[in-house]
Amino acid sequence: MHSEDVASRSAEQRDSARESRSGTPQLDAVSLAIIEQLQEDGRRPYAAIGKAVGLSEAAVRQRVQKLLDQGVMQIVAVTDPLTVGFRRQAMVGVHVEGDVETIADALSAMSEVEYVVMTAGSFDVLAEIVCEDDDHLLDVINRRIRALPGVRSTESFVYLKLKKQTYMWGTR
């Protein structure tokens, strides 16, 4: 066993201990650097990441798996919805009576809803919806979202053109 792997495991054990006390993953500088490497290229080989952050390929593989298991990050292919058959996107603002989290959970369960945030401001919840066409969008808003108990009203913002979609905000 390499001393680097031993050091990596003991550091990960310390991270796990901090996580269990606070309930939120505590990320060290190396984990943040790994995340940034993957934000630049989600297919970057673990060996290349290891070289950039000073760990072995095996140690990077373990850290990445831990970050995935903790829900800190996802590794996915990001597409332009128009090119894969989804011709209509919209942001829907929702005014809620009662428990906002109940509505946010119900929206999160809908396959067409890609993004849900509870907000302070004009709307209680914002939901990004990706649909095949206008009829599909109408069905989701009219028959499913507006039918949820506690939804007082909605306002839709239909996307005309996707100008920028990136997930490279780095880490802090």
Query: Strands across the major sheet, in which order?
Result: 2-3-1-4
**Fraction of residues in β-strands:** 15-25%
Please provide the ordered H/E string of secondary-structure elements.
HHHHEHEEHE
Structural class: alpha+beta
Give the biggest sheet: 4 strands, antiparallel
Q: How many H/I helical runs?
A: 6
Give the termini separation: 32 Å
Overall pLDDT confidence? 87
Overall spatial form: elongated
* Integer-rounded radius of gyration: 21 Å
Brief overview:
With 172 residues, this protein is of the alpha+beta class.
Describe what you observe in this structure.
The chain has a 4-stranded antiparallel sheet. The protein has 6 helices and 4 strands; from the N terminus they run ααααβαββαβ. The protein has helices at 3-22, 29-40, 46-53, 57-69, 100-108, 134-145, and strands at residues 88-96, 113-118, 125-131, 151-158. The longest helix is centred in the N-terminal third of the chain and has 20 residues, at 3-22. The protein is elongated and about 55 Å long. It is an alpha+beta fold and 172 residues long. Helix 3 crosses helix 4 (57-69). A hairpin with a 6-residue loop joins strand 2 (113-118) and strand 3 (125-131).
